Amino acid sequence: MTTTAVTVPFRFFALHVVRTVRLGPSLVRVTFAGDDLSAFFSDGLDQSLSLFLPHPGQDAPAVPVELGDGWWQGWRELPDGVRAVMRSYTLRALRADAHGRTTEIDIDFVLHGVEPGALVPAGPASRWASRAATGDRVLLLGPAIADNRAIRFRPPAGTDLVVIWADETAVPAASAILEQLPAGTRAQVWLEAGRAGDIQDLATDADAEITWLVRGPGTARGAETGTGTGAPPALDAIRDAQLPSAERPYAWIAGESSAVKELRRHLVRERGIDRRAVTFVGYWRRGLSEEQLREQPE
User: Fold this and answer.
1) At residue 227, does pLDDT exceed 50?
2) CA pair distance 285, 223, nearest whole angstrom
3) Boundaries of each FAD-binding FR-type domain copy (predicted)?
């Protein structure tokens, strides 16, 4: 008899907050830990995660008792205002012990509408992150295999230029990518920030030119609620840019869906980059909450 071991690529992790750090007026980093993390494995980069958060007054996120293959339907059937808030985030960093077991992970949250007099009200994840405290409990759907399909940054062999654009919801992913680019990799990077105070010093060994595009107060995108004002400043900036010459460029663009589509069209049609060498990810869509976006037909 032959026995085959099958490893499930994604699983649920019960975690708690161990600390928070305010990175800027619109950014907070939350560090999570938990015994379950010993089974968390990821190669990083733009690793996507699903985070389940409690509503105010709950001490833990409400999810189905059985988190098997039918968890999605079970979660949807819980009453509104009871079922856990689910939001997609990117792994910013992880730390492991001497045996390679993950001990902590970081997730960066963009805060929308939590400041007094905000034009757009805060969504549930922004409210939670702005008040997160040591011991707060969450649930995470994440990878149990380091190289998994929720990592999308995959430049082809022979890539000689990496082009990156990210709005603030994708800056954590772009930052993790930059940190792991090999020394000498040429990269042209545009990152959006709602405020000048949200600009971060990013570490990279790559030969990277990083341009921050600041929209200014009152122009927050509202990724959680699907609202927001102002066209992306990236398109004009990239159209006006002189890209370094390259034979095999690769582009990774992520953020609001309509902006991502415009930028992809520009890179493919006007810049001549092979469409197969452009990874584009719509992290959110203006006018739709994440729940509504997930229910859209493919």
Assistant:
1) no
2) 7
3) 10-156
Containing H/E element for 235? helix 234-240
Q: Which helix (H) or strand (E) holds 165?
A: strand 161-166
Q: Quick one: how many helices (H) and strands (E) in the chain?
A: 6, 11
* Cα 45 to chain centroid, rounded: 10
Q: Of 225, 295, 208, 223, give the one whose Cα is nearest residue 258.
A: 223
Please give the CATH number for the structural domain made up of 161-217+230-284.
Answer: 3.40.50.80
How far is the CA of 195 from the CAs of 25, 27, 95, 213, 280, in angstroms?
Answer: 7, 10, 29, 9, 24
The pLDDT value given to residue 95: 97
Tokens encoding 277: 């060498």
Q: Where in the chain is the domain with CATH 2.40.30.10?
A: 10-143
Give the whole-angstrom CA distance, residue 220 versus residue 50. 23
Q: In which residue are the tokens 């430049």 written?
A: 155
Tell the CATH topology of 10-143.
Elongation Factor Tu (Ef-tu); domain 3 (2.40.30)
pLDDT, tens digit (0-9, with 9 covering 90-100), for 245-279: 999 999 999 999 999 999 999 999 999 999 999 99
State yes or no: pLDDT of 4 exceeds 60. no
Local confidence band at 285 (pLDDT 50, 70, 90 cut-offs): confident
Contact 199, 213 (CB under 8 A): no
Could you list the beta-strand ranges (E) of 25-136: 27-33, 48-53, 85-96, 102-110
For residue 245, the 8-state DSSP code is P
pTM: 0.88
Rounded Cα distance between 24 and 41, Å, is 29
